[in-house]
Design goal:
Elements lengths: L1 E4 L5 E13 L6 E14 L4 E11 L2 E10 L2 E6 L7 E5 L2 E13 L2 E10 L14 E15 L2 E17 L8 E17 L2
Antiparallel strand pairs: 1-4, 2-3, 4-5, 5-8, 6-7, 8-9, 9-10, 10-11, 11-12
Amino acid sequence: GARLHSPSVRVKGDGDIYASASVVSTTMPASQETEIADVSVDRPLPMDLGIGVSYQATPTLALMADLNLQLPATVTTVDDPRVTTVEKEYGLAPRGAIAMELEVLAKKWLRAGFVINRSATAAPETADDETREDYVGGTLGFAWQSGRTHTAIDAFYLHGSVQTFVEGVTPPRPADASGRLLGGLFTVSYRL
């Protein structure tokens, strides 16, 4: 199959902007609050293309692949004359997944998969730049069918590599971080 996400599909609306600043001083403390209502906001997304294939390699082995590509774009999320225009730059972001399903016994399947998701943002060069997050992961599972009931037990692992700037320090400095997500799924479905 194929998939196309057009930039013309977007979420638009209005939002409120509130800012508060305080200056603590022994001679002249001051504070300032700003509130602007009904600011025009937008959530456009860059063009995203995808293609997926499934191939029955043998009567007991199915192979799948899914490839996606988000194209570079500059998108405007806040465009209101009362506030600063907010634009975001997105680069080329390839993503992909491969999977297999092997019928090891009658109506019993072993499943495995791998996914990679590259970030659409470049590595930050200043504290004002967006964080870059790249992900890789895998799944492993076993499923069986009894009559019309299909049951599956799956485990997944996702590793994120993050490039960001440490907030609240002077001078701001770059930092690398990583995150790991482990989990399991248990599903039962009944086919009508």
